[in-house]
């Protein structure tokens, strides 16, 4: 006989249901730790998570330095501190030589206070009088209007000397107006000038990339991310409700919420950057978790239908053991890939893989130790422990939901024995199987009770 490798030996009977309360307490403890860390971060730093540029607003600039420039990352950080870039960070780019990635909270090169200083510098301009000015906070342009046509180069010079470096040009206005638009230089250009001034010469070869997200856009992205997570959970609840019934749906939603909170808590504890890529990772974890939970629920429902006379706790425990091999193999192979990406990756992909790594572990855990115990609690608390029996009785009356076994597994209505059992008895007595069935049936008609309980008045199959 050919033997196959079995990760989980056949007949494994780990008491999931018996120890479910312990695992639920572990989940509650982890959730409390996660929420406490978020609150601690909010009190100590003003933000629950280390939100990236996507959510809090700011600029990300990637500069490539010349090869001959011998500048360490500590020198770059000192430069940012010297020029008062609050909340800034600088790291080298692992996969690119002589490149630094700088993140600052500034989205423009000036703030409203600096604009007022630059505006006051125009009081010394004699060719024309400033009649109107406007600077949208967080914008990259200044809008001015004069009573006469000014000289653009003179306006540009006065603004630059006052600390608002930019290029002046003709603006848009009505007839008889003399508008001027000043396009402020970007954060990348300003950093380039500061690098060159600090370290001498042209140490910056070029700006590789420069991205800016305004604070209002960041808040919008943050609210959209929360909305997407809540919407996904709502749709999952509806799907599980339709796919199974109300006893299963809350377990699926609680498991998904459990996984999301623990992944967010892991980022709060580790201090890793939380950005749009992590929202995508959370949605991926939600999908993976509910998929695993539905597989477990499907097996539980199948086992309950086959063994409706057995205690539901015992049947649920058997179903969890039967899915254990599949769960470990699926989650294990997924973790191997995610772990490789986490170890070998860099930048945003590394944090994305970290979120998936944590999510796959807690998602597998919640399917076994959170969703299933909640299903049993709901069945006992709101259905008197007989919710599964009610559903099967309805199926039997309607003639639906039959589960068939292999050939020879039919149960005889009169004897309560399967055809295979009757044939075995006939072989043992060297008799005719058909006659054995007829004799057993006649005995039942005469009043002899069958040894095995009938489960239905119609012909059905017993699982082999």
Molecular structure report:
It contains 14 helices and twelve strands. The relative contact order is 0.10. The longest helix has 35 residues, at 348-382. Residues 398-408 and 448-464 have low confidence and may be disordered. The protein is an alpha+beta fold and 464 residues long. The two termini are 20 Å apart. The chain is 56% helix and 13% strand. It has three domains: 20-44 and 217-388, Multidrug efflux transporter AcrB transmembrane domain (Multidrug efflux transporter AcrB transmembrane fold); 58-108 and 189-213, Alpha-Beta Plaits; 112-185, General secretion pathway protein M, EpsM (Gyrase A, domain 2, 2-Layer Sandwich), CATH 3.30.1360.100. The strands form four sheets. The chain has a four-stranded antiparallel sheet with strand order 3-4-2-9. Strands 5-6-8-7 form a four-stranded antiparallel sheet, with helices on one face. The radius of gyration is 35 Å and the shape is elongated.
Q: Main traits of this protein?
A:
alpha+beta; Alpha-Beta Plaits; Gyrase A, domain 2; 3 domains; four-stranded antiparallel beta sheet; 14 helices; 56% helix; disordered C terminus
């Amino acid at each position: 006989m050919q033997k196959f490798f079995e990760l989980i030996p056949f007949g494994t009977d780990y008491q999931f249901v018996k120890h479910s309360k312990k695992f639920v307490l572990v989940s509650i403890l982890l959730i409390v730790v996660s929420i406490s860390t978020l609150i601690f971060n909010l009190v100590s730093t003003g933000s629950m998570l280390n939100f990236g540029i996507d959510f809090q607003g700011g600029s990300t600039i990637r500069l490539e330095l010349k090869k001959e420039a011998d500048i360490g990352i500590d020198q770059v950080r000192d430069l940012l501190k010297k020029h008062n870039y609050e909340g800034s960070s600088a790291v080298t780019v692992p996969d690119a030589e002589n490149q630094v990635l700088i993140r600052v909270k500034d989205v423009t090169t000036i703030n409203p206070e600096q604009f007022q200083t630059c505006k006051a510098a125009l009081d010394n301009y004699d060719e024309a009088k400033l009649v109107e000015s406007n600077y949208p906070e967080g914008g990259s342009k200044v809008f001015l209007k004069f009573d006469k046509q000014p000289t653009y180069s003179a306006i540009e010079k006065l603004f630059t000397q006052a600390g608002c470096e930019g290029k002046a040009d003709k603006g848009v206005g009505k007839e008889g107006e003399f508008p001027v638009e000043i396009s402020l230089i970007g954060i990348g250009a300003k950093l380039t000038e500061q690098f060159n001034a600090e370290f001498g010469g042209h140490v910056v070869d070029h700006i590789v990339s420069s991205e800016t997200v305004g604070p209002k856009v960041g808040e919008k992205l943050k609210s959209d991310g929360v909305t997407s997570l809540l919407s996904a959970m709502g749709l999952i609840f509806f799907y599980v409700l339709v796919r199974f019934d109300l006893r299963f749906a809350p377990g699926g939603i609680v498991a998904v919420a459990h996984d999301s909170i623990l992944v967010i808590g892991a980022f709060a504890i580790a201090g890793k950057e939380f950005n749009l890529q992590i929202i995508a990772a959370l949605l991926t974890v939600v999908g993976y978790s509910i998929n695993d939970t539905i597989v477990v629920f499907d097996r539980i429902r199948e086992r309950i239908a086959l063994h409706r006379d057995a205690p539901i706790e015992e049947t649920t425990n058997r179903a969890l053991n039967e899915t254990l091999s599949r769960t470990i193999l699926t989650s294990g192979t997924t973790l191997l890939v995610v772990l490789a990406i986490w170890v070998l990756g860099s930048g945003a992909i590394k944090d994305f893989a970290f979120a998936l790594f944590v999510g796959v572990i807690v998602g597998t855990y919640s399917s076994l130790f959170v969703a299933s115990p909640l299903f049993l609690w709901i069945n006992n608390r709101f259905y008197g422990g007989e919710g599964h029996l009610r559903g099967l009785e309805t199926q039997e009356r309607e003639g639906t939901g039959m589960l068939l076994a292999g050939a020879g597994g039919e149960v005889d209505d009169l004897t309560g024995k399967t055809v295979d059992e009757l044939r075995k008895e006939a072989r043992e007595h060297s008799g005719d199987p058909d006659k054995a069935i007829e004799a057993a049936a006649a005995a039942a008609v005469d009043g002899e009770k069958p040894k095995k309980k009938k489960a239905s008045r119609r012909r059905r199959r017993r699982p082999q």
